[in-house]
Amino acid sequence: MRLLTHNMLSCNIKGVTKGFPLSIEVQKLDTKETDFNPDFLRNIIPKLEWKAFHDAAVSVGLNDIPEQVDPVMLEYTEFLQKFHHALLEVHLEEGALICPETGRRFPVTKGVPNMLLLEDEV
Amino acid sequence: MADGRRTSLIRSFSSMPHQRKALHRQTSSPALGLKGHVAAALHAHVDGKTGSELQVEVDESSLCHYAVVDSPRRRIANINLVARHPEVYEPCDDSFALVDALLADKVHLLERQPSLCLEVGCGSGYVITSLALLMGEGSGAQYIATDISSVAAEVTRTTLRSHGVEADVVVTNLVTGLEKRLAGSVDLLVFNPPYVPTPEEEVGVEGITAAWAGGDRGRTVIDRMLAIVDSLMSSKGLFYLLTLTANNPGEICQIMKKKGFASRIVVQRSTEEESLHVLKFWREDVRDISDNGNHSTFSHSFSSKFSRLAFWR
User: InterPro entries under this entry (chain A) (predicted)?
Assistant: First the structure.
């Protein structure tokens, strides 16, 4: 699971108001090189919750993502490359995502988060 | 293929898709065994020959006949690279019809430049992989695929990897866990639902049953999806939905019309008894610009028939 995916997920248990961002529990990380596509990065920025992305990057050991993003940064290749790496190349292979409100743990297995809810959570 | 050539697999004639899903419903093991046999036979024949065209005939059960033809410019998933698992629905007529619909609308899709594409119920990964391939690497789009089955999610990941395509795969019920963050931003939504009419209690159960069991009129899961489409879709969003006649596609279009969506049939695939429709929906206040004859970009299989008519008229 890439941090991009993490940024799109929230806890939807009945009664939870925001359920975002889910904190990341890391058991195993993997890095997979992927093609650098600046257009994709520029497209995706407006859709990201940047603070959540920043915090997620820190939780997987990446400390070079700025706390705030400025459109000017998109002109700098160095920034785009770090952004690219954190967003798309680092994969949480094993671990969990944890709801900030309920503490509910959503397992991540073989790189896939499992967001299925139990009957009494719907 | 043994010689590494890219080939396409086209069902030259076939059982009806609902029967394929229904077949699973009746007795999954023998059906899967047969499908496995078909696949094995196919590989054996292909491996033994280098010709550009060959036929593989299935024995007395005669579920379907396959033809393998070269397609060097292929831009959808290669059926031979699609991962398989006994608990995961293999690509069949319904999957092919959906991909045909996307191919038929390819020019339109490229023009719209979707930045977020979502497939619900990705199963083998054939459709999301095909979508990502046909949109091309430079599209700058994000692809998300969900499935209620963790095995399907794994199979989809394998299929994606085999084709060198990236997508985010999430195990969930429809879009649970994604709906808040994706609200209003899905530009392309694709759904091949469990559409076979079944007893209600079979819907969403564990294993491959979830891939076909659609409850009353096959509409239970479809209707759950219809209820959330409006909140997910962006202003330029397109929604491709596969349905069976038994699902009452006309009524589905009426339901969507009330939510402000226009619709059309992109692909209609008829067999003797039944027919599949791939319906396409878009927000009525956004003009549909697909009517530019781009269907000719795909030399679709002969059993397909396109209809541009709204069938409720």
Answer: Trm112, Trm112-like
